[in-house]
Specification:
Aspartate Aminotransferase, domain 2, 386 residues, seven-stranded mixed sheet, 15% strand, Aspartate Aminotransferase, domain 1, 14 helices
């Protein structure tokens, strides 16, 4: 299906008066004309508008669009990205099960697997994941789920999705991937054999840093199962207004992602010339060790990358960060604005190798202005004299 049709018309039929902007159904409940209709809805809430916590017309349009973009049969919107990750994994796990998870995943995903699930007797093995053998060799008789994030947070390492999915299907292991970085525009893991795709919709799907939400997409059987187990019991439901904001953002995702990528490739070209930069972590950078895999399983790249600074003190990282004027100091990413996130800000460990890494989100500003901002920050760092 053409992407323009998905973004601008798919799933939008059935509303009175043919509105150009989807109505916000800001209602908690829906009423019925008869006992029979009421009963049918109560017995099949996945398919019925009964209570907005389960299903809402505004939310439903967004879910249909995301499912179409991800080449999935169905999708479910959650109140946050980590709610989507938690539901998509916990639905298929029980006490005594084993999970293999990529070790450089998003911080709260890592905490879910390293701390939270341990309380319920779920065993987790963390692997580097750059080689499919990392997953294969870590598989046990009780392994029920592989959790992937390709590329990973901060270091942007990829996993070979097709190879891992092929092995997992043979062993009846469920595969779940966080596809937030690539978006459905640049990577479709379901077409590569992955079972379930999750997104932090707060990032590029929303695109304006004004909404928090998550998405789970997959075949209808899995999404129904997640709905009836984790989603309805935990209640991590989004509001209709949040769904409307996401629909608004989704209208321009194809334009925004192209600009993010164009800007980022220009920034990477600049960073290659900076001697204070020891390494660049971006899958579409030709010196990335998995560049060929990136080109094979992705159609493009987003605006998030990391650099490793050539420094001998934390003070120089602080100086570089504080000298930036256009890049804002903030968590998250995926909006129109450029951001900086030094790994050293997440801990007090001093100058470790990982603390030399600084994550940059390249926004939609003029790329020349962003390069000028980075140039003056590198100059300030170099002249700091620490």
């Amino acid at each position: 299906m053409d992407i323009t049709k998905i973004l601008h018309s798919f799933g939008e039929n059935g509303f009175s008066y043919s509105p150009v902007s989807i109505p916000i159904y800001e209602t908690s409940i829906f009423s019925f004309e008869s006992f029979e209709q009421f009963q049918e809805s109560l017995l099949s809430e996945f398919d019925s508008h009964l209570y907005t916590r389960g299903k809402n017309p505004t939310v439903e349009v967004l879910e249909k669009k995301i499912a179409a973009l991800e080449k999935a049969e169905s999708a479910k919107l959650f109140s946050s990205g980590i709610a989507a990750v938690s539901a998509a994994t916990m639905a298929f796990l029980k006490s005594g099960d084993h999970v293999v998870c990529v070790k450089d995943a998003y911080g709260w995903t890592n905490r879910l697997f390293s701390q939270y699930l341990n309380r319920f007797g779920v065993e987790v093995t963390f692997v580097d994941g750059k080689n499919p053998d990392d997953f294969i060799k870590s598989t046990k008789s009780n392994t029920k789920l592989f959790f992937l994030e390709s590329p990973t947070t901060f270091t942007f390492q990829l996993q070979d999705l097709s190879a891992i999915a092929e092995f997992a299907k043979d062993k009846n292991i469920k595969t779940v991937i966080d596809n937030t970085w690539a978006t459905p525009l640049f990577q479709n893991p379901i077409e590569l054999g992955i079972d379930i795709v999750v997104h932090s919709a707060s990032k590029y799907i929303g695109g304006h840093s004004d909404v928090v939400a998550g998405i789970v997409a997959g075949n209808e059987r899995d999404i129904r199962y997640i709905f009836n187990t984790e989603f309805m019991n935990i209640g991590a439901a989004p509001g209709p207004f949040e769904a409307w904001l996401l629909l608004r953002g989704l209208r321009t995702i194809h334009l925004r992602m192209q600009k993010h990528m164009e800007n980022t490739l220009k920034i990477v070209d600049f960073l290659k010339t900076v001697k204070e930069v020891e390494d660049i972590y971006y899958p579409l950078y030709e010196n990335h060790p998995q560049y060929e895999l990136a080109k094979k399983q992705m159609r493009g790249g987003s605006g998030l990358l990391s650099i490793k600074l050539r420094v001998d003190s934390i003070e120089k990282i602080i100086k570089f960060t504080n000298a930036l004027k256009i890049f804002r100091k903030a968590v998250s990413w995926g909006g129109y604005e450029s951001l900086v996130m030094p790994y050293a800000a997440t801990n007090r460990e001093g100058l470790t190798e990982k603390n030399k890494i600084v994550r940059l989100h390249i926004g939609l500003e003029n790329s020349e202005i962003l390069i000028e901002d980075l140039q003056q920050a590198f100059f300030a760092m170099k002249k700091s004299g620490f």
